[in-house]
Specification:
There is one protein chain. The protein is mainly beta. Helix content is 10%, strand content 30%. β9 (111-113) and β10 form a beta hairpin. The longest helix is centred in the middle third of the chain and has 12 residues, at 89-100. Mean pLDDT is 89; it is low at 10-28.
């Protein structure tokens, strides 16, 4: 399977820094199923779902107004999220669909980064390998209002944002990242919500515990030393 890669822009160079889940290739001689609504969620036969889950509902008009509270209970503390339908309607619709089916429950956030320009916790992969996804992909809904960074190709993903990890254009699945410190990235990652104050406290606690580095790697990118499990992800206000 293919890992999703979140990359951070250092001055004049690209630094590979963050790995998530499923891409959107198809098996030869097999036409993947695609929903017929505006979001066009598409099966990824060569990267099947890490847990059984159907394609999301895809009405002709995707709900694109209002916000949805999603309390997340972790073993490290509460992690309340607020999802913004106006910001990324297809992404919010997919996330809520996965949450309703228990896709995120009893999963482990598999990656923490502590680079000067990338400070995120990555979650959403039931396999905790960076390769697991929901068995489908969908299009980007890229932000247009992020603050500029010193590098003209980058933007600031501010502390408290929630965004999708990906493996390139239009390869969103289930993996997402939570920004615990302002991060400099190309604006290639869909922002679909924010973390509440209690959640930021939880993220700070996880970050303060440090990182288990990959073999031969630096302690700036790897599994959190304070193992972080999403126990229950429950959409409210639906």
């Amino acid at each position: 399977m293919k890992k999703l890669v979140v990359t951070t822009l250092a001055v004049g160079s690209l630094l590979a820094a963050f790995a998530p889940a499923a891409g959107a290739a198809t098996v030869a001689n097999s036409e993947p199923t695609t929903t017929h609504g505006a979001c066009q969620y598409t099966e990824t036969p060569d990267e099947p779902a890490a847990r059984p889950v159907p394609l999301p509902p895809d009405p002709q008009h995707t709900p694109d107004r209002g916000k949805v509270a999603v309390p997340v209970i972790t073993n490290q503390g509460l992690l309340p999220l607020t999802l913004d339908r106006a910001e990324a309607p297809c992404t919010v619709q997919s996330f809520l669909h996965l949450a309703r089916h228990g896709f995120f429950n009893q999963t482990t956030c598999h990656r923490l980064t502590d680079y000067p320009t990338l400070k995120v916790l990555q979650c959403g992969d039931p396999t905790a390998t960076g390769e697991g996804g929901p068995g489908y992909s969908f299009r980007d809904e890229l932000p247009t209002d992020l603050p500029p960074a010193s590098n003209p190709a980058a933007r600031i993903y501010s502390r408290g944002l929630v965004a999708m990890a990906n493996a390139g254009p239009d390869t969103n699945g289930s993996q997402f990242f939570l920004v615990y410190g302002d991060s400099t990235l190309r604006p290639d990652y869909t922002v679909f919500g924010t973390v509440g104050p209690l959640g930021l406290n939880t993220l700070d606690r996880v970050a303060a515990g440090g990182i288990v580095p990959e073999p031969g790697g630096e302690p700036t990118d790897g599994a959190p030393s304070r193992k972080t499990n999403l126990e229950l992800v429950l959409p409210l206000g639906l």
